[in-house]
Prior knowledge:
Layout: H1 58-70, E1 86-88, E2 98-100, E3 110-113, E4 119-124, E5 127-132, E6 140-146, H2 151-159, E7 172-177, E8 182-187, E9 194-201, E10 204-205, E11 214-215, E12 229-233, E13 236-242, E14 250-255, E15 262-263, E16 276-282, E17 286-294, E18 305-313, E19 331-336, E20 347-354, E21 364-370, E22 381-387, H3 388-395, E23 400-403, E24 408-411, H4 431-439, E25 447-448, E26 450-455, E27 460-469, E28 475-483, E29 487-493, E30 499-506, E31 516-520, E32 525-530, E33 533-538, H5 548-554, E34 559-562, E35 567-570, E36 579-580, H6 588-591, E37 610-615, E38 619-623, E39 633-638, E40 649-652, E41 655-659, E42 666-674, E43 677-688, E44 704-707, E45 712-713, H7 718-723, H8 727-765, H9 792-797, H10 802-806
Parallel strand pairs: 1-30, 19-25, 37-43, 37-44
Antiparallel strand pairs: 2-33, 3-4, 4-5, 5-6, 7-8, 8-9, 9-10, 9-11, 12-13, 13-14, 14-15, 16-17, 17-18, 18-19, 20-21, 21-22, 22-26, 23-24, 27-28, 28-29, 29-30, 31-32, 32-33, 34-35, 34-36, 38-41, 38-45, 39-42, 40-41, 42-43
Amino acid sequence: MEMSTHHPSLDLKGSCSWPGKPSAPGKHQRAHFLHPEHTKPSGNSPWLSMPPPARGPDLWRLLGLLLFQLLPPTAGSGGQGLVPRVSYRAGDGRRALGLFHQKGLQDFDTLLLSDDEDTLYVGVREAILALNIQDPGVPRLQSMIPWPASDRKKTECAFKRKSNETQCFNFIRVLVPFNATHLYACGTFAFSPVCAFIELQESSLVPLSEGKVMDGKGQSPFDPAHKHTAVLVDGMLYSGTMNNFLGSEPILIRTLGSQPVLKTDTFLRWLHSDASFVAAIPSTEVVYFFFEETAIEFDFFEKLHTSRVARVCKNDVGGEKLLQKKWTTFLKAQLLCARPGQLPFNLIRHAVLLPAPGPGAAARVYAVFTSQWQIGRTRSSAVCAFSLPDIERVFKGKYKELNKETSRWTTYRGPETNPRPGDCSVGPSSDKALTFMMDHFLMDEQVVGTPLLVKSGVEYTRLAVETARDLDGHSHLVMYLGTTTGVLHKAVVSKNGSARLLEEIQLFPDPEPVRNLQLAPHQGAVFAGFSGGVCRVPRANCSVYESCVDCVLARDPHCVWDSESQTCCLLSAPIQNSWKQDMERGNPGLACANGPIGRSLQPQSRPQIIKEVLAVPNSILELPCPHLSALASYRWSHGAAASVPGASSTVYNGSLLLLLREGVGGLYQCWATENGFSYPVVSYWVDSQDQPLALDPELEGIPRERVQAPLTRVGGGAALAAQRSYWPHFLTVTVLLAFVLSGALILLLASPLGALRARGKVQGCGTLVPGEKAPLSREQPLKPPKELRAPASDVDADSSPLGSEVA
């Protein structure tokens, strides 16, 4: 089974392809054979070509064959663990991407999609872009307005010991739609935040004048490295960011609009100084802020981080005497994302809202978490789902309070006032309620989420979600996850709550974080922002599945098999009767029963196409087996037998290494087993040039593709190989190897024995120098070894214990 590298709908003039990267295998990839003149592996070959035995004595050539026999067979992953079914490296032609980049522009951090989804607004370093995304290829620059930080601000920034190369610029951090004719944008402006209204004319940006720039403190962070969030609701901007130059004063603030400006109280420590905001999600009456901070209610850890959700009411106007220009409805609760019996994922990275799919259903918040704890150098990530009704219920529950005598946070069990403190009641609250709110801003109960996906070895940074309906009308949750290494994962969650990773796409050649994700459903794409540009990723890659078996086993809700056109195509309205899909079971035997099944025709052992190989006897042949799915296990068969002869073949890296001897020709098939379904991936007919095999009657009528390639001769020919036995050579090599190892072992043991003997002589067992009767001086140099020889009479005549004094 092979994959096509070309499809008309994916031909892009520009793509996220990089020079020097290996290309995908062609549709008619030939088998690779071992030959002395072609021992260097091709950079374009996805298969591992083993180097053949060098020309010379038969002894060394047979030693190479012996090593081939000793290599352990390899197989697929077998579908164990949460692994992506298909993986694409950067520049892989099978997954065409559209890359927009321009010289002088970098840090594509902020993305905003227009209401008609025809324009993508991008906030970069010291500029705002408008990209036309109507074409399915590379985004096209429609307009751009520069917004650099002033020279005076850059000088002040450098004077405050900030970097002129990485920090003292205007990084766009807020980009939201204000109305039909204006955007609202804020930037760091060299550690002096500013904001401005950006005028639109037919989706194009109007240049910005200095008079329209306003102070942006509290709306944009000072430091571009600090996390932040902002959302515009009913003409008012709700922001969560750092409010000072040092980055030690987190703030939740409401600006713009007709309502008074409100913010959190720094003195009351509603937020810890290291709070880091990741998302702001509006609801009917309130706005939720998702962030992480050091937990103040736990004292058994020096620094235990926790994830939070805070809530403020939209109609809050602040207090009259107490909490003037401050929030009177600020409450926060702990988010818990954990599997039973395991440590929680306590660091939130991003959160998005998926509206209720229909009447009677609840809106849900999906958030990406990592853990403060890690095993070795690997870190795990999780995606948890939180129901909005559950969040609302927690904020209507009990409060926590700080016991000033014990400095512990306990559950508040006192009487409750009416109206309830923190409730979104109309009008200002009483002083009694405000006094209570100052100290009771933390909820007692946790908001418990449902883990949908847990992946080890990766750290997710961003998340985008959508729902997709299959042919039966069932809705499936589809998630797009960006990582710290520039990888995009596409995952699908089934009705029973289990998640599957469909694809893993390496967006950039060098590992760097995915800074933002923007889903454009009408365009059928996901846009990923990174330091060097914006990458357009088609949300589905149906054309890569070339048969009904591949298309059904992928279980992608966006893809269906069209039995009339014999292609795997995008699911769209109107639905055709010739379309096949099985999202629940993923069984090609049922979904493809009424139409052509591609490479798995009935009977299953009958291939669709055979690659014919004419080989020379006593040659080494490599038969590749493309592994199209990491969830499948692979095996080789020979003719009607379920396995290949072990005496003349071995499996290495999925490929079959075959020593062509008498009786080893015929049909060789590589089988894949996935989701309980087995099918042949590729079929080879190996024949001898000297004595061609008779054609198998069962294989008549099947198209054949002749594969011609040079071979490596092992012996001097078929007659010579038949007369010569390999057993004496094997014994010779084994005996020689045993002699070499024995000699090395003797040398290793002889050195320690010599050292022990010398040490024993120094400690009183040696002889004395003739004529020397007095004790040896410490400063006297040692004599050469030949002067230490003395007659036995001289030694016997001197009975003084000089040996101990020498020691």
